[in-house]
Design brief:
Largest sheet: none
Order of helices and strands: HHHH
Radius of gyration: 16 Å
Structural class: mainly alpha
Number of helices: 4
Strand content: under 5%
Mean pLDDT: 77
Number of strands: 0
Length: 107
């Protein structure tokens, strides 16, 4: 309950969730079936992510996540989207929260 209250407060002013693409009708009954898509970033794309990340003192993963947020924003025709990263507790939890906070800024 405390975590839920924290996140509601922390994300209170966040932009609304983007509307999903409407290339097909939604099922009449929600199934919660998920899926996954394997993606490999290598070669020139990875080097570009490393360069961009280094220029803003971020990790390549943060740069790629920001790029994905841009794709989501373009797709939903929204200027700002919020992209979150789940983290677990532990010794470096505070440092990870700080890193995730940087990624969760509007893109």
């Amino acid at each position: 309950a405390a975590q839920l209250a924290y996140w509601r407060s922390a994300l209170g002013g966040a932009p609304a969730a983007p509307a999903p693409a409407s290339d097909r009708a939604r099922p009449s009954v929600q199934s919660f079936r998920g899926g996954s898509v394997a993606l490999s970033v290598g070669g020139d794309a990875w080097q570009a992510a490393v360069s961009v990340a280094a220029s803003v003192h971020a990790t390549p993963v943060a740069a790629l996540l920001a790029a994905w947020g841009g794709v989501l924003g373009q797709s939903a025709r929204q200027r700002c989207v919020v992209v979150g990263v789940p983290t677990a507790g532990g010794r470096n939890a505070i440092r990870r929260r700080a890193a995730a906070g940087g990624v969760c800024a509007p893109i």
